Amino acid sequence: MVQVSAVLGCVACAEAVWVAASFVRPRHHDAEGADLFVAGPVDRFEPNSVTAFPSGRFYLVRLTDGAFLALHRECTHLGCTVPWDAAQGRFACPCHASSFDITGQVISPPAPRPLDYYVVRVENGVVKVDTRRRLSRSAFDASQVTGA
Ligand code: FES
Description:
By secondary structure, the protein is of the alpha+beta class. It is about 15% helix and about 35% strand. It contains one helix and eleven strands, in the order αβββββββββββ. A seven-stranded antiparallel β-sheet has the order 1-2-11-10-5-4-3, with no helix packed on it. A four-stranded antiparallel β-sheet has the order 6-7-8-9, with no helix packed on it. The radius of gyration is 18 Å and the shape is globular. Bound molecules: FE2/S2 (inorganic) cluster. FE2/S2 (inorganic) cluster binds near residues 77, 93, 95 and 96.
């Protein structure tokens, strides 16, 4: 009986931690009701850099021209998480060897299309990512990036 109480106590504690964490998670709803993930101030991200946001399940890419692109971290082949390989300058899937360039375009198959992306907004010098809607694409184009 003591063990059951202990287990129930642990479940209650885990639930309390989860509720508390949901309050400190860096999100807010904007005036249009979009669910935005606050990535941080623009200056935090160097041009030609990739920053992982595991809790948001995306990478924030800052391109060489200073524009931002948010890439979903799942491979478009079978959904493995694709790590960024800084030394190689590419995303390299550990499952079946697909690779993607910094804009998420396929370098090596079997991935059938580029990494999905999210809309990025820069508001008052702060980068925010709309993680509510994941967008697929057949190729990279300038409409997918947001200037600083
Ligand atoms: S899941 Fe990435 S290559 Fe298959």
